[in-house]
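Reminder to self: tokens first, then the designed residues, so the page reads top to bottom the way the pipeline ran.
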């Protein structure tokens, strides 16, 4: 401070210097606070990103399993249809065989009644 300054100017200079120091300290505290908060938020974002990746992987696994189950179900349904057709064909051929065996006897009975 200069000696030729008035008391009022000296008070203003001291007050300005004090306010500048307090402002600088406050700015430093705020920067540190926001830096810490920013770091915390980054960690939370990282955790959430990992969780989302895990959910995505689980979802992809479930979709894959569902597709496999749908494919298996389709294959089983196809097998059931083939089995029913095969069984129906067997039943029809068995029916034809049985009715073929029964008809000659019926024809013989019919022929005996004509005589």
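Designed residues (115 positions):
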């Amino acid at each position: 401070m200069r000696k030729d300054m008035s008391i009022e100017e000296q008070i203003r200079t001291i007050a300005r210097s004090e306010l500048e120091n307090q402002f600088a300290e406050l700015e430093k505290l705020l920067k540190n606070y926001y830096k810490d908060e920013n770091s915390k938020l980054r960690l939370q974002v990282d955790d959430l990103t990992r969780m989302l990746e895990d959910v995505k992987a689980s979802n992809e696994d479930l979709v894959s399993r569902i597709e496999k189950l749908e494919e298996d179900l389709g294959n089983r349904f196809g097998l059931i249809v083939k089995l029913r057709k095969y069984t129906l064909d067997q039943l029809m051929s068995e029916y034809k065989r049985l009715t073929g065996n029964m008809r000659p006897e019926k024809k013989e009975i019919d022929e005996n009644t004509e005589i």
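The chain has a mean pLDDT of 88.
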